[in-house]
Amino acid sequence: MDVEGTPLNDFNTSREDGNSDSLQQSGSTPLKILRTYSRWSPMEEGVTLAWNDLSVYANMKEKSSKSYKRIITEVTGAIRSGSLVALMGASGSGKSTLMAALAYRSAGGVIVEGDILINGRPVGDYMRHISGFMHQEDIFIGSLTVWEHMSIMARMKLDRRINDRERRFKICDILKQLGLSQCMNTRIGLNGDSKVLSGGEKKRLAFATELLTDPPLLFCDEPTTGLDAYSAQKIVTMMNMMSAAGKTILCTIHQPSSEIFAMFSQVILLADGKIAFMGSTANAVQFFDK
Ligand SMILES: Nc1ncnc2c1ncn2[C@@H]1O[C@H](COP(=O)(O)OP(=O)(O)OP(=O)(O)O)[C@@H](O)[C@H]1O
Ligand SMILES: [Mg+2]
């Protein structure tokens, strides 16, 4: 498969700038430079994600015999670098399952078959290092404040060489962008607690956590669910700006308003584990008008 002119077989042979297999020395002997994962930097190139014949099965563990339920059936597709893509479909159509499979974050007992490629190359577990994943359900320690949560996550996720001042600056900047500065010292709280973060603030905090490492590829599972129209628009506007700056963002979304829908560049519609439509948002409207 050839995605955006980056054939699979140039994986180990292209130069760091990706233009040629060999460097010409001052004489005429070509000098081969090998490229490895450690040199490969999709952060700079941008990320085009492609998948081919992808099926996902869940182990049903019925009594002693193992039986598998197919959730996603042989789907093929691609997302260009720098695009904001909406993954839509009815509840239970397989959006979260497909997204987790693409992000190499499937739960135990789930089997993924097929190819997943980044810029034309198979990635494997390296996907976890170059992508952020915002889960549908928020996972937080309720007793921490927003600042404590971000500080701990920053220590875990960021490079050790980043000093305290830079780390604090980064956290402040992200919290400011997401309108969370005024609740820095608020406890996150558990469901049912009073005087803690609202549902919308928790969603924004989950998004903020994923922005810490500034990944070139972001998976967001229902980032706007439970948000009011204003907050939903704000978060999608932010994603739109990030994609314009080169990030690739795949985002599941339910019932977006027309303004929010228009901010996406591409839409993938899932029905019963299969892709019913994939294309630009403008074409989607025409397609369903017919
Ligand atoms: N580990 C699993 N074991 C068994 N069935 C599963 C498993 N994971 C998902 N399913 C089933 O696969 C189907 C798709 O689930 P998925 O969570 O991907 O749907 P979704 O499109 O994200 O729905 P929603 O919009 O409600 O979040 C559902 O019928 C679900 O019950
Ligand atoms: Mg889901």
Write a structural description.
By secondary structure, the protein is α/β, with parallel strands linked by helices. It has 9 helices and 14 strands. It has helices at residues 42-45, 95-102, 127-130, 146-157, 164-177, 199-211, 229-244, 258-262, 281-289; strands at 2-3, 6-7, 22-24, 30-32, 49-59, 68-79, 84-89, 110-118, 121-122, 131-134, 217-221, 248-252, 266-271, 274-280. The strands form 4 sheets. The chain has a 6-stranded mixed sheet, with helices on both faces. It has a 4-stranded antiparallel sheet with strand order 6-5-8-9, with helices on one face. Strand 13 and strand 14 (274-280) form a beta hairpin. It is globular. The two termini are 32 Å apart. Residues 58, 69, 71, 89, 91-97, 107, 109-110, 136 line the site of adenosine-5'-triphosphate. This is ABC transporter. Keywords: ATP-binding, Membrane, Nucleotide-binding, Transmembrane, Transmembrane helix, Transport. Belongs to the ABC transporter superfamily. ABCG family. Eye pigment precursor importer (TC 3.A.1.204) subfamily. It comes from Popillia japonica (Japanese beetle).
